[in-house]
Structure formats: C-alpha cells, structure tokens
Design brief:
By secondary structure, the protein is mainly β. Helix content is 4%, strand content 56%. It is globular, with a radius of gyration of 26 Å.
Length: 628
Amino acid sequence: MKFVKIVLVLVVLFFQLHVFAQKKDSIKFAGKRWSIDEHYAYKTYHSFDTLLDHFQVYNPLFSRGPLFAGLGNIGLPAYSFSNSEIFSSGTFYSKAFRPYLFSSENTLYYNVNSPYSDIQYSSSMKKVDEQTLDFIQTRNFSDKFNIGFQYRLIASSGQFYQQATRNSHYRLFSSYAGVRYEYYFSININKCGYSESGGYLEDTSLNKEKIKSKERFIPSVDSTRSVFLNRDFAFFQKVNFGKKIAVKEKDSIIGYRIESKFSIAHSMRFKQEIRNFYSGKSDTGFNRAPLNSLDSNDSANVKHLTNTLYLNLIDLKNSKYGIKPKLYLSNDLYYSKMYSKMSDTLHSSFVNTKAGAYLLLGEKARLKWYADAYIGLSGYIESDIYIKAGTEINFSFFKDTAQVVVYAENHTFKPDYSFSNYISNYLKWDIPVFAKTNLRHLHLNGQLQRSQIDVSFDYYSVSNFVYFDSLLIPIQSSGTINSLSLSLRKNVNMNWLQFDNQVVLQYTDKYKIIHVPSLLIYSSLYTNFYFFKKALRIQLGMDLWYASSYYLPAWMPVSGTFYNQSSIKSKEVPMMDVFLNMEIKKVRIFLKYSNANTAFDDRTFSQSLNYPTNPATFVYGISWRFYD
C-alpha cells in the first residue's frame, strides 16, 4: 500500500512538470531566520532549508556528521563522540537525548514577508514501520512581530523485539523587535518514550538465512520501558532608554532608532527534566539484582527556574564599533526529586546566585570581539568560575570569502547534583563530595565559502572529570584528561558530479576513560541531472559512514546513561546508504536503501555494546514548502 502511494505521488508530480517549467512563483519569498546567544546579544543567521544536497540524511543523529553511536533504531538514546558533548554539564540522564531535543538554545527565529510552512515526512517499509514528521509554520503579523509553531515526530517499531520508539517534540516561538521594546519567546516540550531491551543476545544456532529475523536476537529484558520528558520555557524582554531619532533616506523617513545610553533586560527560563523507568518483577537482565521483587517504577525529576537581570550600560550598536557591554545578575531555583518504590523519596533544593559581565565589540563589523565571565555567589554553584573570550574575522581571500573564529574558555564548576545522589530499584548511590571539575577549551575554525572548505580544531584539558565506569556508578578521574580533535569538511563540485566529505581525527591521552574512535569519516558521492528546463533535478548517489575501532559504549537502562567497558571493541566496517533525490520546485523527494551493505554481509554490526544495527531497509521521504 505504501508503494502505491509513492507511485501516485510521483505520477501527479511528473504530470505537472511542464506546467512548473513555464509557471513562475506568484510571490517572491523573502525572509531571514537566526539563532541567538544565551545573553540575547548576538544573532547568527541561518539559510532556509531548501537544498536538495543531503536531504536524504533525515536522522538527527547523522545530520551533523558521523559523531554519534546509537542503539540500533532511530529515536533511541545515543552516545556522542564529540568532546563538547562528552565534557558538557547537566543531568547525566539527559545527555543521551540531546541530539533530538527542541530547546531555547536551538530555537530559530524568523522574519518573513509571507506565511512560511515546511512539511517533511519519511517512512520505511512495514518490517521496521519507521516514520518521521517535521512540520513548521511561521508568519509575520507586522514587520516587527513574528510567531511560529514546530512539531516533530520520530516513531519506529524497529526490526527486533523491545526496540520501539515514539518521540514527540513541540515548539512555540515568537519575537518582536520594536524601537524601544523587544522580546524573544520559546516554549519547547519533548517526550521520548521507548522500550528497553537491555541489549541483545544472538542465537547463533539459527541458520544464517534468519539473520534478519526477530527470532535471532533475544532481548535481555522484557516488559521494560522508559520515558524522558523535557520542558524548556524561555522569555527575554528588553527596554531601550534614549532619544528617538528618525532614519531618513533621500529626505524620506524610513524608520526610527534609539540613540540609547542604556537599556534594561530580563530573561526568565524554566527547565524540567523527568525520567521514568518501568520494569517487571525481579528482572535479572541488568547485571544487577533488584533491591526488591516488586515492579520497578523509578523516577528522577529536576527543575530549574532562572531569572536574570541585565543592565546594558551603553548600547552603541549603530555606531562604528558596535559596543555592547552589559552586567547581569542571575538567580536560579533548583529542585530535585528522586523516587523509587523501595526507598523514601529524596528531595533536594538550592538557591543559586551568580554575577557576570558580557562584552560584544563590532557586531556589524568584519572584526568582532566578545568576552563573557561570571562567578557563583551562593548555593550549589558557589565559587564556580567561567571565563570565555573570542573573536570572529571576515575578510576576502584570493577571490573567496573567508571567516576565522577563535575562542578560549575556562570553566571551574561542581559536577551536576544528579551525579551525587540517585535511588532506584537496581541502583543507588550517595556521594557526599565531588571535587570541582576544571575545563579548559581552545577552539579554532576557518572557512572558505566559495571553495567549500571548513576546518575546525579543538583542544580540551579537563581535570576531575566525572563519568560512569563498569561498576555502573559515577566516579571522578584523577589527573588531567587531554583531548584533541581536527575536523575537515570539503565539498568537491565537478559539474554533474558532487563529492562531499567530512573527516574527523581525534586523540586523547585517557582512552580508558574517553572511548572515541580516532578516525571518523562521512562521504557522499552523487550525480546532478536536470530535466524540463531545470524544473526537475535528480541526484543519484551513495553515503558512506566509517569509524575506526573503539570500545563500544554500554547502555544502562536503569539509570538512563552510557557507561564505560574495556572488553569489546567495534568492528571497522563502513556503513553504506544508496539514495535517489528529486526536486520539483518547492517539492523534494528521496528514496533510500539504508544500511545497504548489510544486505550482502551476514555479519552483525553494532555501534553500542549488544545493540545490533538495523539491517538494510527501504526508506522514502518528501518535503513540501509553502510561501503563502
């Protein structure tokens, strides 16, 4: 039935090709979209997602390159190979879901001259029953006021028992940029529900002809599931004080601006992370005996309510240098609740206060400088220190447009409170004191726009890093961990043939703690063909993913985190997808044979310990954009 639907859609689209080739859009769409930094001071503009290139890479884990290892099915928890994620702070049970989440940090704000909508849908054959849906709709009610909504669904039954996922993500966003008053508003709700298998045992007694069947891979646990719920609400508002001045062009007033001496701003953010774990009676598949024989119903709940007051001493963004210094004072109400049938409910709360300063120099210039620093004054973050400084340079380089970004940061902080206390039916720990972690990070990035070259270098030096060892509890490393990574992106365009590549080299002096591949590669080789006066564009090609051998990360369903094991390494086998992409005006379509190499190789591949990658399957997808 799904195949019939695909054929009908293709027939309708091709019937209209000659019409599309002659007809012009009635509305010339114009718009901008951008993200904004945590202090709502600096915008980073993003192009609209209209490219056909890499449209077939719809999985959020792989859209940013070969930097994640999953549990075999889309939407399941994932382990990051990126140092920025490995060394990041926050609750330990949220890390595995961050690639999927809507948040205030990754919200894009819009300004469009007509209503804009984009619908993207993908689905696989019945044996996997995989579906993804991404819908966004936004419109301006004036040239200053925009509001929009986004919804994303990731659902799949998987090819093995206890592999089902259903992730739902909702976002409501709005912005207003008046002369004296402006605001940003973002509401994000994420719910990730999935079955827990505890890893799979392979029945090698079965014939190899059944290698793709569910019967060959036996889950370690049954009747077990988890739900991760994330709520993230953010609101920022700013009032400019100063003289209102008319902006003229050829003796005509085209707008107004504020000659501002100072401004006051306020941001409020509410963030909640809940993880619920359910399992049957006395399940023995977790390598850990339960504390009681009842059904497990464990819960971890963390809430933050943060209010920050900003005082912009001067705001000369319209001046030659674009100076934007500000002072800020932040208050955070923190509440944690751990629940298990076996134990009493554990409550903890803190009132955290910090003070800081931020400086942005040259917002509209080719050379930008910025610095940020704060110190924890009270609560759990008392005496935490953060310092960051960087620059961005834009210039011409041999008929090309070049950009260089450099920044360095130093962060001394107490590990998240969730590492210190945890209770469940299978795991329980109470660690009174962790020493403060010290993280030093240097980042260098260079880009050549026309040559399509992007090079990044990162160096991390981390002391007292907290991680999960083979005993399934958090421990703190002794000494300093040094990690380096070098990433190179280069796209080669040879008329009808395109060759896009990303190579990541990584090194750490503590491979027993930081389990990452030393080499990661993503390559995409495809052709470009045009028909019907370029109304139809077709790409035919393949994607290749490769990771050198590394110790497979192990997943612990009870605590919802990956932990280290140093016994089994991954196989150095590339994964391959074969795809066909098509674009007809505002419509994009892809057909893909995912993990195609497993159709010709009867070996079992895993990115994480005891979680086999799904065998080859057909996937199709469509995207349709509307500008009115």
